[in-house]
C-alpha cells in the first residue's frame, strides 16, 4: 500500500496549475538570476556592433568605464576607494585575496558552503598560516572575534546556500591595519551597505546585477590597494599573472581587464547598474528586496506545513529565502510540478540536503511575481491536502 507521503507526492506531480495563477516570469533562481527583457533586447540592438570587437578599443572600454562610474555612484564610493574588476568570478577572487590581500593569517566566518570555500583556500595556501575559523551551524549567524594575530577578517554579506545575512561592520576593536574582506556576490546591489566598513567589498555580476558570470568586481580601499602592491613586490611571494590584484588594478584604471572579458556580460552589467540608479539606487533596491522576501516569510508564518529555515528574523536574507517543508510533504514534488509549469530554480542548495525551497528575490523580481508564486504554492498545497 502506498504511504501517504508518496501518494501526496504523486498527486502534486500530476497537478495542473491554472495559467491565471502563474507569475509573468517564473525564474526565481539564486544565481544565475533572471535578466530583464530590456537587457536581453539591447544585446541585439544597442550592443550589436560592440559584441565580437576588441576589448582594448574604445567601445568595450566605455562599457567598463560605465560600469565603474555606475558602481561608484550606486555604492556612494568613499574617498580613496576604487572599483576594480578582473576575469574569473568570485571564486577567482578568493585566490586573488589569498595571494594579494592576506599577509600571514586570516579569520573567516563560516556559516555555509560558500563561506567555507574561502576558508579552505587560505587553509591550503602554502605561504599562509592556517586561518582562524569561527563556525556557525547553517541557518545561524556568527560574529567576528577580534584577534591580534590576524591581518584580514573575511565573511559573506549573504550566505547564498542558507539565506543568512551578516552585518557589514568593522569588528569593534580591530586594528586599522586589519583588512575586512566581504563577499557580497549574492547581495551586492540589492541591500544598503556602508562600503567604508570594508576594504574589499567584492562580488560577481550574475545575481542582483542580472548579468552572466565570468567577472569579479571589488570596491577596494586605499589600504587594500597599498597592501596588494606591497605584498606583490616581495621577492619571496609568487604571484601568478592571472591572479595578480595589482595587474587588475592597473588594467581597471585603463577601463579594461587583464584578459579578454565576455563583452555581453559587461553590456548586461552596465545596463543593470544604470537601471538600478534610475529606480532610486540602493535605497530603492533595498526596499524592494525587503518587500519581496517579506512576502515569502509572511506566507511561511500562515502555512503550518512551512517553516523559515533561518529562525532569527534579523538574520534572514533579503534576496535568498530558505523555507523548510514539513517532512510529510516531498519538496521535490513541489519543485517538479512548478518546473513543469515554467516556475524554475526554487530547489534547495544541494549540499544542504534539506526538504526545502530556496527562492531568490533579486531586484529584477517584482512583487507581483512573488505574490503569484505564493498563490501557486497555496494552490499546490491546498489541492493535494
From TrEMBL:
Cofactor(s) listed: pyridoxal 5'-phosphate
Enzyme Commission no: 2.6.1.52
Cofactor mode of binding and number, as noted: Binds 1 pyridoxal phosphate per subunit.
InterPro entries tied to this protein: Aminotrans_V_dom, Pser_aminoTfrase, Pser_aminoTfrase_mycobac, PyrdxlP-dep_Trfase, PyrdxlP-dep_Trfase_major, PyrdxlP-dep_Trfase_small
Keyword entries, A-Z: Amino-acid biosynthesis, Aminotransferase, Cytoplasm, Pyridoxal phosphate, Pyridoxine biosynthesis, Serine biosynthesis, Transferase
Residue positions where N6-(pyridoxal phosphate)lysine is found in the record: 207
Residues annotated for pyridoxal 5'-phosphate binding in this entry: 114, 160, 183, 206, 259-260
Catalytic activity: 4-(phosphooxy)-L-threonine + 2-oxoglutarate = (R)-3-hydroxy-2-oxo-4-phosphooxybutanoate + L-glutamate; O-phospho-L-serine + 2-oxoglutarate = 3-phosphooxypyruvate + L-glutamate
Similarity section: Belongs to the class-V pyridoxal-phosphate-dependent aminotransferase family. SerC subfamily.
Primary role: Catalyzes the reversible conversion of 3-phosphohydroxypyruvate to phosphoserine and of 3-hydroxy-2-oxo-4-phosphonooxybutanoate to phosphohydroxythreonine.
Protein name: Phosphoserine aminotransferase
Originating organism: Brachybacterium rhamnosum
Origin organism lineage: Bacteria, Bacillati, Actinomycetota, Actinomycetes, Micrococcales
Amino acid at each position: 500500500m502506498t504511504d501517504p507521503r508518496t501518494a501526496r507526492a504523486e498527486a502534486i506531480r500530476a497537478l495542473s496549475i491554472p495559467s491565471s495563477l502563474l507569475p509573468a516570469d517564473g525564474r526565481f533562481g539564486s544565481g544565475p538570476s533572471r535578466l530583464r527583457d530590456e537587457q536581453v533586447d539591447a544585446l541585439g540592438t544597442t550592443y550589436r556592433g560592440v559584441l565580437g570587437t576588441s576589448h582594448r578599443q574604445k567601445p568595450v572600454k566605455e562599457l567598463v568605464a560605465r560600469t565603474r562610474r555606475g558602481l561608484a555612484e550606486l555604492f556612494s564610493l568613499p574617498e580613496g576607494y576604487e572599483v576594480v574588476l578582473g576575469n574569473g568570478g568570485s571564486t577567482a577572487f578568493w585566490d586573488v585575496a589569498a595571494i594579494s590581500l592576506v599577509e600571514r593569517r586570516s579569520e573567516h566566518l563560516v556559516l555555509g558552503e560558500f563561506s567555507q570555500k574561502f576558508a579552505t583556500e587560505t587553509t591550503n595556501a602554502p605561504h599562509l598560516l592556517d586561518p582562524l575559523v569561527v563556525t556557525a551551524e547553517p541557518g545561524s549567524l556568527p560574529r567576528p572575534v577580534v584577534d591580534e594575530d590576524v591581518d584580514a577578517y573575511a565573511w559573506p554579506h549573504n550566505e547564498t546556500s542558507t539565506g543568512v545575512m551578516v552585518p557589514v561592520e568593522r569588528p569593534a576593536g580591530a586594528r586599522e591595519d586589519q583588512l575586512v574582506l566581504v563577499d557580497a556576490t549574492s547581495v551586492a546591489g540589492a541591500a544598503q551597505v556602508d562600503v567604508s566598513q570594508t576594504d574589499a567589498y567584492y562580488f560577481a555580476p550574475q545575481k542582483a546585477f542580472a548579468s552572466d558570470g565570468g567577472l569579479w568586481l571589488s570596491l577596494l580601499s586605499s589600504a587594500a590597494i597599498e597592501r596588494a602592491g606591497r605584498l606583490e613586490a616581495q621577492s619571496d611571494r609568487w604571484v601568478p599573472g592571472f591572479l595578480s590584484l595589482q595587474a587588475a588594478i592597473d588594467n581597471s584604471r585603463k577601463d579594461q581587464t587583464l584578459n579578454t572579458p565576455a563583452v555581453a556580460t559587461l553590456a548586461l552589467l552596465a545596463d543593470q547598474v544604470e537601471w538600478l540608479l534610475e529606480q532610486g539606487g540602493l535605497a530603492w533596491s533595498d526596499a524592494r528586496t525587503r518587500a519581496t522576501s517579506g512576502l515569502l516569510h509572511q506566507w511561511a508564518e500562515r502555512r503550518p506545513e512551512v517553516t523559515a529555515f533561518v529562525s532569527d528574523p534579523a538574520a534572514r536574507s533579503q534576496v535568498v529565502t530558505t523555507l523548510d517543508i514539513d517532512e510529510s510533504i516531498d519538496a521535490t514534488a513541489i519543485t517538479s510540478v512548478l518546473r513543469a509549469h515554467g516556475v524554475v530554480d526554487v530547489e534547495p542548495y544541494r549540499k544542504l540536503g534539506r526538504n526545502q525551497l530556496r527562492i531568490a528575490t533579486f531586484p529584477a523580481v517584482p512583487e507581483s511575481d512573488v505574490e503569484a508564486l505564493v498563490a501557486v504554492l497555496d494552490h499546490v498545497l491546498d489541492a493535494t491536502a
